[in-house]
Every structure is written in C-alpha cells, then in structure tokens.
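Narrative progress, year one. The postdoctoral researcher (J.K.) led the effort to move from monomer predictions toward full complexes, under supervision of the PI. The following entry was the first complex the group processed end to end, covering 486 residues in total.
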Amino acid sequence: MPKKAEQPADTPSYEAAREELIDVVRRLEAGGTTLEESLALWERGEALAKICQDWLDGARQRLDAAIETEDE
Amino acid sequence: MAMETSLESPAPVRQVANAIAGWVDRLGAVWVEGQVAQVNRRPGMSTVFMTLRDAVADISVTVTCSRTLFDGLNPPVVEGASIVVHAKPSYYANRGTLSLYARDIRMVGLGELLARLERRRQLLAAEGLFARELKRPLPFLPGTVGLVTAPNSAAERDVLENARRRWPAVTFEVAYAAMQGQRSAAEVIEAVERLDRNPAVDVIVVARGGGSVEDLLPFSDEALIRAVAAVRTPVVSAIGHEPDQPLLDLVADVRASTPTDAAKLVVPDVAEEQRGVTHARDRVRGAVRAWLAREQAGLDALRSRPALADPRTLLDARLDEVAQLRDRARRTLGHALDRAADDIGHHRARARALSPLATLQRGYAVLQDADGHVVTSVAGVAAEQQISVRVADGRIHATTTTTETLEETHAEEG
C-alpha cells in the first residue's frame, strides 16, 4: 500500500534526495557546465524530483489511510 | 492510718467505708480533663450524672454536679465534648460508689481543643506519619472505589453521583461507619481496614459533610491516624469543607476539600479524557498534514524552477548562443566574401582591362600553334600546319595554306 515499499532499496532517503535536488538546481542555474553535464544534471534532477514526489505521495496515502480507518 | 483487723476482729463495713472515704478525701480537689461520654440529666433530680472518658485510654469515671451548675454552662455540655472539671473525689458510702463531685466545669475551649490537636499533630508529624514521600499516587482508573461514610448521608450521595457522572462504569464498595460521636473513630478504622483488605479496592475515600471542630474530632483521633498510615491502599480524606483540616487530611495520601472534590480526584472525567485524546490526535494529524504540505510546496517550488521544469531554457540558451555564433560567423564570412569579391572584381577588372579579350571583341584574333604558343610572325609557320584562331567568342581550328609577309611600320610596343 505505501509507495515507499516499491522503490529499490538503494533509493536515497527523502531528505537526501531533496538535498541533492536543491544542489542540482543550483548548479544548473549557476551554468558554466558543459552541455553534456547539464543534460546529465537535468536528468538527475528529474529522477530526484520523482523520488521526492513518491515519498510525499506515500506519506499522504498512509496518512489518509490512517484517517480513513479511523473514521469508519 | 492503716486499720488493724484480723480474722478474729474484722472491721465492720461502715468502718471500712469510712476508711476508704478518708483515703479518697486525701486526693483533694483536682482539675480533670476528659470527654463527656454520657449525660444523665433527669428532671426533678438536683444532681446530674455524667460519664467522663479518658481521651486516649478506655477508662472512664462518673462525674456528678449540681443541676444549677450544669444548666449554667455555656456552651452547654454535649456528649462527645471535651471538658475540664475541677472536682473532688467522693466516696458514697451507702452504695460504695465513687464519683468525682464537680464544683466547676469548663468547656474545653475551641482554642484549647485546637491547641491540643496541634500538639497531637506535632507529635505525629515528628514520627513522620505525614511525610510527603509516604504519599501514594492515586490510580488513574480505579477498579473499585472504597467509600467510608455515614449511611445515606449527603457526603455519600455527593461522591457517588459525581463519580458516576464522570465515569458511569465506576464501581463502589461502600463501608458505612458512624461519622460523628463516640464510636466514630473506631468504626472508621474498622471500615478502612476492611476495605484495605479487599484487593479489588484501589482507593479508599473517607467522606463526611461539614461539622464543628468537635464533630470532626474523630478524624483527628490518634488511633485512626495510625491506622490510615498503616493501610496499603491510597486514602483520600474528604472531611468537612475547605477550611476544615482534621489530622486525617495530613496522613491521607490525598486531601480533597469536599466529598464532591474527592469524586473528581479519584475518577477521571471520561468525556474530558475523550476530548483530550481526540484533541491530541487531531493535533498530531494537523502537524503531519502541515509538514506534508510544507514539503510538497517546497518540492513544487523546486520543480517549477526553470532549470527543471523547462530544460529547453537550458537548450534555448545554448541555441541562442549557437545561433548568435552562427550569425556572427556568417556575417564575418559575408564580409570576407564581399571583400574577396571586391578584390576579385577588382583584379578581374584589371585582368580584363589587360586581357586581349576586348581587343578580340574589336575584331582582332590571336593565332596559336598546336602547342598553344601565340604566333606573332609568319616565320616559323609552315603550310598545312594546324593552328587555332582565338576570336572573342571562341576558337577556330584551321590549317594554314600559305603565309605572306607584309611590311608594316613597327607599331608601338603594347
């Protein structure tokens, strides 16, 4: 039921993913990276954003589920 | 004055009685303190009989006094009251009874009573019976509540009603005891100890409505205080109203100001607890939701940053860059070409100016032999020789027939 379980074991924790994402965005905006690097950075950024979103969706699902079972 | 008697010459009763009377008189008048256990005041009798009981020991003595004295007392003597009498022991020979004939009776004043209570409090306090560390916490949710009170008293109703309103499922074990008068202290002790022996009882409440200091005296009774100190079950003292402070309050684990207050202390208000739990749960949920919202907002903000949301901006930047470079390249190339073109044009013009083409166009032609050399003189040209004639717009290949030398004036050198 929680999305978190589906992610591969080596998925970074939410905080780690979030920190790296902030760093990626900062480096992309700073520029000065080669085209190759910025593409790679961008792809990494997208992946990290998805991981964070999955964590948050999972948390929300668990919260809603807990509330649902409570209100039956 | 010992009496000389013997089997042979026994003393008559009257003599022994008189002797006893004599010895008794030798005590003289004394101030005696005690508690009035009984008062026999029959109309028509000039003497009032009272039983004066010792405060601590189980010893009592008859006290007699004149009715006028008794009636004159203010406040009047009531059973259970503590008094101090100035009396002379008198031996009533006729029936061989001894009694104290009181000539003066003083009510033990409230101040005196309180003073005595205070002394007793200090005594018991010194023994550590009131020590704070002995106080046991009350169980949050008692299985059974033991209640020591007078049968169908206001106190009983207060405790039961209030407790049930707060927690309908509360169970009570009520042990009735006299809450006033002589037997009170002993009965309360017995009730408390009986409840203490009952394992189901988790807390014992001793509840009594308001009363005078005398009324509440049993609840400062030393034996009761020691009994309560000894029991294992936590005890709640709910005696009288707020200001009342019998010693039981000090030895009990918890002091309730009134029976109603006792009910509140021993039984949680379930509705209140329920609200508390719900409130706590809601706050927990609120906190998690707030955290989620904050993190989601943070993530959305990050994702909406151009660097992520629209990677094209990255590429656009580079595209622009490339475009600009290309344009510049083209422009510079263009310039270079233009210049080159000008240069070529210039050279061509010059070439053309120097080129024989114009001459050819004016009708001249240039002869070239097979090797391409230009023939400038007839010499060297044989008949039937392959020659090509370059005219303005092309070449004519011909074979010579004859050659003819002409004498021309020498034209200026070209």
